[in-house]
Amino acid sequence: MSDNQLFKASSIMALGTIASRITGLIRNLMLAALLGTAILGDTYNVANTMPNILYNLLIGGALTAVFVPQIVRSLRDSDQGSAFISRLFTVTVTFLFALTVIGILISPQLVNIYAPEYAGSKEFDVTVTLMRYCLPQIFFLGLFALLGQIANAKDRFGPMMWAPVINNLLAIALFYFLIVSRGDLSVASISNQDLLWLGLGTTAGYLAQALVLFPVVIKSGVRLSLRFDWANSQIIKSFKLAGWSFAYAMISQLSYLVTINIATSAAVKSAADGITTGVGYTPYANAYLILILPHSIITVSIVTALLPKLSNLVIDKKYKDVSDSMSLTMRLMGIFIIPAAVLFLFFGDVIAKVLYFGIPTDDANYLGLTLSAFALGLIPVSINLVLLRGLNAFENLKSQVIGNLIMNIISVVLSLIAAYT
Prior knowledge:
This protein is mainly α. It has one domain. Helix content is 82%, strand content 0%. The protein has helices at 3-35, 39-66, 68-74, 82-105, 107-114, 122-134, 137-153, 158-182, 192-211, 214-219, 233-272, 281-315, 319-355, 361-374, 378-393, 398-420. Helix 2 (39-66) runs parallel beside helix 7 (137-153), helix 2 runs parallel beside helix 12 (281-315) and helix 5 packs across helix 6. The model has no long low-confidence stretch (mean pLDDT 86).
């Protein structure tokens, strides 16, 4: 792939990401209007975040980047990768199904781990019920990621970035329906039927998001079939690489667990003191959603198109071209990311008020302060992603794990100091 082709592919993905993020923002505005930003909003966010936590912890990293160089390499086989990709597909969907079932069975334990302050309360029951409806998202997230990476390896980059728009539109329709039909909801008033609509309706969006990629993969020429002959050197190598990916994700999720516990504990304790403004996990999650917009639109779009190119360059041992491509990517990315970080730093409160106009002003102010605190981290996060994909192309995950460990130790220590001093 030439630099011009990379730019074109990145542009297509950026447009898809913009559409996805705009509809995602509308989705979150509708959700905030439906559930608020306090306790009920937290129960939904904890429940709906769990599929992503388990998915990212156990398999997401492998599907997002680790397997891509192997898929690219397999495309040079005489069957254009169909045998290897079919084995990988079978292993993946089997693991995803098992993980989904186990997650549903241990939902109460997961809530106890991630929101211990809910124990013995109505919030606990609501979160467990919602989580059981949301956890099938694990299967659909994994299916979407694998199909998307196969499409990307075949230079069909657009569909993976546009598919989430369908997910968001379905969620927007769902939340609008619940707002009109149910009005104001609270932990005390929400019914089992409301939880059913909210949980399964959200999950249905992820199903649609995955299904739209099947025709793309089929049209790319890859012949998918179920193959259980997993005693294959390439598949064994995939398992080993996935092990490093698991270690990387485990470190990140342990750090994230500390964040969620601190945030949900703050919400519960503040609510007991009559304070329901600007505290809890939901302001954190919403501020992060705004922060990650330029990263998702610019950096992720460019890097997604870059990884197959880097993988081919590594296979051909063109290491100077690998370095040049990564340097060009960082320069191009910086044109957009640096101004965005400065904007968030100085105008976080204004941005929060404009985007979350449906929530109380005090809530928006605190959300804006959180966004400003996040701002300077945007630049190193984007640079880090480019470097990670370079290491992925070389299938060097050990260095990634070491770097992630150092970063998250610092994050946890600073979070605990901030929470208890």
